[in-house]
Design brief:
It contains six helices and twelve strands. It has 226 residues and is an alpha/beta fold. The radius of gyration is 18 Å and the shape is globular.
Length: 226
Amino acid sequence: MSFKVVIGVENLSKLITAKEAAALIKNGSTVMVGGFLSCGTPNKIIDEMVAQKIDDLTMICNDTSFADVDRGKLIKNGLVKKVITTHIGTNPITGSKMQSGELEVEFYPMGTLVEKIHAKGSGLGGVLTPTGVGTILEEDKKVIEIKGKKYIFEEPLGADYAVIYGSTVDKYGNVAFKGTTRNFNTSMATAAETVIIEAEEVVEELDPNNVVIPGIFIDYIVDGRK
């Protein structure tokens, strides 16, 4: 039995437009933005954030993508004051803004960044990681020794908003993914006060066996086909 039945907009209480989604985000907010480069990114919402000039943002993301697409547009248009990320090598504009002092960039190893987000989403007080011990990552942080091995204590990382992507989303906000599009989206869904998801496809109901993010974490849905 198939559960995948496409429904009309009027039946979705969580459904809003990309324009309405961007308008929810306030200037000066901390925003998690899902995606790995251009895989699994909420492009329509990002475009509306650029159009509405949502400014003075702190952006948490795996990377700053490329200069002229998705998250890179937020950097290029000067809407981000600080980015917390793992790498910026694919976006030369991020690098030049960092060097000129226009943009603050805070780097973490990828595993550390996602575990900080996991910690927030799980209600934990932080995580211990050996990654970065003996490097500049130790600066201004506690180093704890357990059974002769040193660990850096990393605090949880949350946000005011998470703007994420889902391959298929049902009217309750349950989310399924195709392949690697899940990337950071799954973790970010648990770690923000307000979570907005851009769906590649909106359906009546998902088979529970296919649900990756339960709908309880999703506040608003944007139909990416509209």
